Amino acid sequence: MSKRSPAPPPAPLTGEILSHRHEFERFVLEHAELWHREHLGRLFTNWRTWNGEHFESRLEPPYLLLAEPAFSRAYGCCCALSGFGGRSEIRIRPSLVRGSHPHVEPGERFAEGRRLFVDDILLHEMIHQWQFEVLGDGEPAYCGHGPLFRDVANRIGAVLGLSPVRDCKRRGSDKNLPSCAQWPHNVRPDGFYLGAYRLSAVLASGDDPVRNRTTCCRGYLERADHWIRRYLLLKASADGPDAAAAEVRRAVEDAIDRTLELLEVPA
After folding, report:
1. In 10 A of CB 174, how many CB atoms?
2. H-helix segments, the chain
3. Residue 232 three-state SS
4. Residue 58: how many CB atoms within 10 A of its CB?
């Protein structure tokens, strides 16, 4: 298999896109309902701080929402396109802020810990925004958590005093490191979230919402199935040995291996 070719540069952000995104931020900070203004205001403040500290001030304000993510069990997500076709939308699950999510403790006593937890979701999603808008590579073969994401997470983690992580595929010399798919929650020191994160509930349920990659893996296998069927139709009348057939077989075997690695199924 050949090495992965560099991704093309990302499409530029036009004046209309930037104007609309800045106007969205202004509306949230000045005219949104009080609850949204309070919590999104904090997140936008953190976004601007971290944009300068960790991203060379090269990012532009995204559409930042307290809304259900695209994946049913994810804490948050960053989409290259919003639901209305805008560029870069970050969603964070509102139940994590309110304290009604089963993985966080409810009540005012744990409010600050929940805010710290949500802040880390934003920092994670900002790396995805960097992938989309600066690198032009969302790493779809890794469901977003490949070497590019890992390297940025480790660069920021070094500044924050966090342990290194690997990409989402458990292999190679760093296979025993934590996965960047759960960064930075999985490398924060005990007590960082002030008791608000119910890690025991996550472990007991077997549910890791950030690492839930079922939909992504299904897409890989469906794509492989499509190309196999198409290939068989095109080659149905061919005679004799066919080197292309061996190449397709290797490609399919590689897709299966990558899917199993993504799901972290032991050999």
Report:
1. 13
2. 15-31, 34-54, 94-98, 111-130, 147-160, 199-205, 214-234, 243-262
3. helix
4. 10
pLDDT at residue 143 above 80?
yes
Q: What is the DSSP string of 15-80?
A: HHHHHHHHHHHHHHHHHS-HHHHHHHHHHHHHHHHHHHHHSTT-----EEEES--SSTT-SEEEEE
Question: ω into residue 184 within 30 of 0, thus cis?
Answer: yes
Residue 90 bridge partners (DSSP):
64, 78
Residue 189: the pLDDT is: 94
Q: CA quadruple 111, 113, 102, 215: dihedral positive or negative?
A: positive
pTM of the complete model: 0.76
User: CA angle, corner 69, sides to 67 and 71, nearest 5?
Assistant: 155
Matching residue, tokens 């090495």: 3
Residue-wise pLDDT for 207-231, tens only, equals 444 444 555 566 556 656 665 665 6
Rounded to whole angstroms, what are the CA distances from 175 to 66, 152, 182, 185, 206?
34, 18, 15, 18, 21
- Domain ranges in the chain are 17-211, 214-234+243-262
Task: Compute the average pLDDT of residues 236-253.
Answer: 58
Bridge partner residues of 77 (DSSP): 91
The crossing angle, in degrees rounded to 10, of helices 34-54 and 111-130 is 50
Tell me the pLDDT tens digit for each residue of 51-108: 999 999 999 999 999 999 988 789 999 999 998 899 999 999 999 999 999 999 999 9
**What distance in Å separates the CA atoms of residue 189 and residue 259, rounded to the nearest whole number?**
31
